[in-house]
Fold:
Amino acid sequence: MIRFAQDPIAVLVALALAATPARSEDWPPFPVEWPTAPVASPADLSGLLDAPAGKAGFIGVSDGHLATADRRRLRFWGINITGAAAFPEPDHAPAIAAHLARLGINCVRLHFMDIPAPRGLVAAGEDTRHLDPAQLGRLDRLVAELKVRGIYCNLNLNVGRRWKPGDGVRDAELLGVGKAATYFDPRLIELQEEFARQILTHRNPHTGNEYRAEPAIAIVELVNENSLVESWFSGRLLGKQATPPGDVWADIPASYAALLDTLFNAWLAKNRSRADVNALRSEAGVGPSDPVPRLRPDQFAKASATRFQSEASFYIETERAFFARMSRLLRDELKLRCPVAGTSDHNHYRSGYPLTSSLATLDVVDGHVYWQHPNYLRDPKTGKKNGFAIGNSPMVDEPLKSTVIQLARTAVSGKPYTVSEFNHPFPNEYAAEGLPILAAYGALQDWDGIFAYTLEHESVTRMERAIGHFDIAPDPVKVPQLAAGALMFLRGDVRPAKRTVPRTYTRDQVMESLRLPTAENPFYTPGFPRALPLVHATRIASFDGPPTGSFEPLSPTPIRSDTGELTWAAADKGSGCVTIDTDRSQALIGFCGKALTRHLEPSRLSPGFCAVTLASLDGLPIARASRLLLTTGARVATTGMRWDEKRRSLAEWGQNPIRIEPVTGSLLLRSIDAAQAISAQPLDGAGRSLGPPVPAIRTGNAWSLSLGSPPTPWSVITVRR
Structure:
């Protein structure tokens, strides 16, 4: 909450006394609520949504972007709903949908539905081939309530399905989720097709439509974070697995590796001459009638271009064949009308171009990224997680490693580009930077959709457990920032870049990029300036074009977008700051004590790292707006949370209630046209009014706002003229 002192001297006294508490135990609790009853919020953004979802017809692609049936450009500011959270109690679905709409969310990615009930759709039994009717009913109600409020859905097909013996699959106990094997094993492909038919031909009684004919379904996604090429360079196609996998990223079982050997040699016989195959045998050191062995990652560097590219081509074509087969099922047999996405480019420590070239054969190209994703530690005997470690450093200090840079490599000319997962996972102490930065730079890059991961894995309305790594619903800083991001991204407050820099790659470059050193990450394009996506837009123009050319050098920090609206300054550690300065949205993110925008000037902000956003709520420029949304965010912690000595993990996770580090100091609102009075309405954890509005103080041509007593991460400012 912001409080405005009545006397300028009182402001100075308050600032001197209101030092931010150093220990999280001393921070005030600020529980986020997702009430089941209707809520009136001064920060209601549901007017941004065009309800009901799909009212003009089915989503399509026009001029390389997502568009409504009447060819109007459509962007998605979305969120994932994962596992059990996608199946709320039926009478809770209306409130959840209404709250998402108030935050400006216009698309939900329904994720991890192919897991056992009551967390997913799969019915109890000896196989995974039957759907639970009660769970389908809960999903139907949620989808219908979302649709009514203008919120589309992205349906995910294969995500977390763990195969059982009753499915008729080999080595089910070793297979786990079967990443990579789902691309080439005939039985696994049949089962994926069966699941697609089951869910897409299911009729939702609340909408009257089967999901294949539901205009509120925006995208259908085939597989999640799953790639043969990635499994190859990660060493997960070796068949060395001897025990049941404890992780989704397990090596494939030996029987599946043997099948892959057979398929590879059959592909060679069909696509390479006998002389070429004999040369491969000779290079591999096997006999003239022996099968050609597949390469291990430790053999990549010494392999000839012919051997390396032959195997890379096999994996690429196998991925494309799977995508083509699934696409034919969805389009030709099921008559699906919405766009289809294959999977995501999600591993930025190696080149993503082989996979992306396959993704671009479908309707939508997609990417995933996390800033310092937890590295999970596992018991060597059981494979179960027994801890985690994170980097826990600010992204604003490392613009060239940022989520923006990582994601920007994947966008392809002529194809919509979505980011269906991103987050700064808890307990990263700099997480307040993530949402507003990606909203702004996603708009600069002119991407089509951005989906935070994830609203919840459990019940949204019964958040009894402490916050998890990825949960956004209980996060008192990220929830208000969803609303601020919606205004920036959906409304187009941040303009697209004036210039788009194309990149072209030959087929050989696409494959050989896998052998470039990791120092070339994430673009794996020697000579490409990493800072370029912070200045201009960039797209892949061709995977079969001329070789990548040279690029113009860029000036050093600060890195300023070609629109002049975004600036990223990072001279050294502890100095990074992103400034957003547009007519309707402005922000100071990071170590921004000396930064300012046209309308925002901080004074003695504490803590030194925080994120402040200010956005017009009535669509007018901030200078003339009557209502403004202010968010102020810093660190978040659970009660009793305790870091380890290196501040890279938690010795104690803690419990509810969740606490916020108060942002204190003051803000000057400058150049607010003809303002006669300014007051702020603090909001609680559900977005309701929290106490009476508090007036601001006129200070010359500006208005002084004192922050932090009592604390809240968001307020609605009213300007009276």
